[in-house]
């Protein structure tokens, strides 16, 4: 990723370097023109300040952990503090630098499609912060799940967070879902980009799924849902295990 594209990383790096003073928000822009803002401070939250469903999901992590889309490292650093062997990976070079500066012992710049068995065998894959969305679309999601199966132990787990896009009555979202259906896409397949100050990512797809859609996504991948951790909003965490384990 080029420096000009690393909007997310610049937001995290500036927050860390400025000690959290006067943080600039990142702007999340959807393909239909809808915009939202995000405060970078949430990526630095301590365990006690996490949403309850994320704290609860940590109990499922064990062994060697791969944190996909590690951001500022809040989940990796917590698991490392609990004695687990954690590798954090992120497509953002500056996000990885932030993780290292904050004390994460193992962090690498990698996109999700670069992950493979050359990294070794993992017992847990963490995809919190809605990072199941990095699957982008059902076809790539199934391909990645099969790849994850090949780089994990027989009793491995995936701890993945997403949100149910159907839990809304807002016309702008419902219209976007219908637009996706008309184009042969899943309703929660979002085209978006991140902007921060003068930096902007390229446009990319991000996938949100309901629980039923998640089970549909898992068909033929070797993974199944073994636990669901709900929140007080449309977000939820799915714990996946290999079928037959």
Describe this structure in words.
- It contains 7 helices and 12 strands.
- By secondary structure, it is an alpha/beta fold.
- The chain has a single domain (3-242), classed as Vaccinia Virus protein VP39 (Rossmann fold, 3-Layer(aba) Sandwich).
- The strands form 2 sheets. It has a 7-stranded mixed β-sheet, sandwiched between helices.
- β8 (189-196) and β9 (199-200) form a beta hairpin.
- The mean pLDDT is 96.
Summarize the SSE layout with pairings:
Blueprint: H1 7-17, E1 26-30, E2 35-38, H2 52-57, E3 64-68, H3 74-81, E4 85-90, H4 93-101, E5 107-109, E6 122-127, H5 138-150, E7 152-163, H6 171-182, E8 189-196, E9 199-200, E10 204-207, H7 211-218, E11 223-230, E12 235-242
Parallel strand pairs: 3-4, 3-6, 4-5, 6-7
Antiparallel strand pairs: 1-2, 1-8, 7-12, 8-9, 8-10, 11-12
Helix pairs in contact: 1-4
Name some characteristics of this structure.
alpha/beta; Rossmann fold; five-stranded antiparallel sheet; about 25% helix
